[in-house]
Amino acid sequence: MPFLALQMRTDDPAFWVLVIVAVSFVVIAVAMVVIAVVVSRVARAVGNVERRVGPLMERVGALAEQVRVIAVQGKEVAEQVTVMTGHLSTATMHFSESMALVRDEVRDLKEVVGLSTETARAKVEMISRSIDETHGQLVTTTNFITSKIVNPAREIAAIMAGVKRGLEVLLAPAPKQIDQSYGEEEMFIG
Questions:
Q1: 13-77 and 80-145 are packed helices; what angle lies between their axes, rounded to 10 degrees?
Q2: What's the predicted TM-score (pTM) here?
Q3: For the chain: N or C, fewer Cβ within 10 A?
Q4: End-to-end CA separation in angstroms for the chain
């Protein structure tokens, strides 16, 4: 009789082992989905930050270029503008430093997201391997239980049923002799 044709009963320990394994698979699957959703959200957030910071960096770069042009023109125009040019140069330097800091922060953020993505992938692969190993162990355990417990128990039950039937036949009352049977029936009828 195939293994799947067996009827599982709730008082059977194998039934509870299968229930626990099934619940474990569901918990692992839910954990994998949660990890995937979190990684997706982080990636989207980083993309949004990049999109917002990109135009700002372009504007700051364009502004810095305009300040440099004004500084050059100011030196040519007059001596009084020279003082103002120094201040504008300092402002340009601060803008450049700020832009460099923003670029460094964006680069660091990309690295963090990259590492997080790599870690998440590694964890998902580890969970997948764990599921495969658990499945293999479950199949091995099921085969072991079937071969060492279920099949011998089935054979013992069949032998016991045969012994019971044999004892019933051996211990049954002896049949009546034919003469006695007819004599009693004749007395009853007549």
A1: 170
A2: 0.34
A3: C
A4: 57
